[in-house]
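Bench log. Compound arrived from synthesis this morning; before running ITC I wanted a structural hypothesis for how glutamic acid sits in the protein. Inputs:
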Amino acid sequence: VSDPVSDALAQLLEETSSVSGGEVADYIPELANADPDDHGIALVSVLGRTYTAGDASTPFTIQSVSKAFVYALAVDEHGLEVVAERVGFEPSGESYNAISLEEDSGRPANPLINAGAIVTSALVPGDGPAAQRAAVEAGLSAFAGRDLAVNDEVFRSEVETGDRNRALAYLTKWSGALPGEVDDAIEVYVRQCSVMVTAEDLAIMGATLANGGRNPRTGEQVVGEEAAQAALSIMATCGMYDHSGEWMVRVGLPAKSGVGGGIVAAQPAQFGIGVYSPPLDEQGNSVRGVAGLEALSREFRLHLLAHPDEPRSPVESSRSDDDGHVVALRGEIDFIAAEQVVHELETLGADGLTIRLDLSAVTRIRPAAERLLAATAEDLAGSRCTVVADDPSGVVEQRRTARGGVLPTTTGSGR
Ligand code: GLU
């Protein structure tokens, strides 16, 4: 069965299948066996619906894409501040396996370069590497909503060729960033890179981050909102190796790539996307994956910082009736909508007037907007004008202003 979203994804694959160039990674012998023509994409909404095209269920190793999710697991376990004592936040401007330790703190620059990822893996809960390995596999599986397997050939192959990673781990141990033993951390880290996923898995994993850490398929809260937000933030600044700055300008979505040919991207509160195509560019990003996500972002205006259309007025009507004045609002009330309501209220605010805010067509009030409206009601009370909200569906959450007041309501007492 076709649907408009999958059709759009299929068309995108077709457009980008002619994009050539790039090399399949071969520094780990097993990776060289990937079929360069494999090409798949999947999108999962935060409501859990899935759309796919091409080789969306072909397995490949997750590689560096895992780093963002393991960072979320570590932050979820210890809190951001504890993790921040050992791993920094800044793009390194160097290749993923660079020796990049901050001079004063000895922290690796960020959790998405190898040095930082190895330290992050060592922060996953568990007594010893076997327990930590299991925790990482369980965590990644929870993000994907199914039991993910490890590719043992890739694992062994990476252990054999992993001297540079061991060297990085020794440096982080020397600088004090790495807790525990080098070999233990490497075992957990390399194991995590050898986990097999599909483009569809990556899309669900991305959708879980986009959904505040709750897997939209299984309903499991895999990590808390703070951890999901931290992972998305670091993906936005450091996710695409030494191409992260240009990526943010051109695509404008948090993303993470891996040398297996996978890329995960997410649009907060909307969806996750997974793309798979093994040939890599010089920075180590999937050539067709980058081309596809660039085209998708351009065509559907997905850039997070794109200028949205002019704010529409949330005031549906403003009229006098027997009891005073009724201002009917509609849609979602964010800061810029509330600012317009404040202006309307201040224009109306006259001595002794009662203004009713009809919220029956309001879908949601953002915290800042509610506090702004409540503070305005407080101000107008000073000139003996009463503002009271009719809130039949309970969108008002009784958030307090700096002076301690809440937006008065006639119906619905908040949720
Ligand atoms: N396991 C790989 C390594 O550490 C991950 C590389 C990557 O995907 O960037 O060499």
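What the model suggests: The mean pLDDT is 95. Residues 63-64, 96, 114, 158, 165, 193, 258-259, 284 surround glutamic acid (CB under 6 Å).
ITC booked for Thursday regardless.
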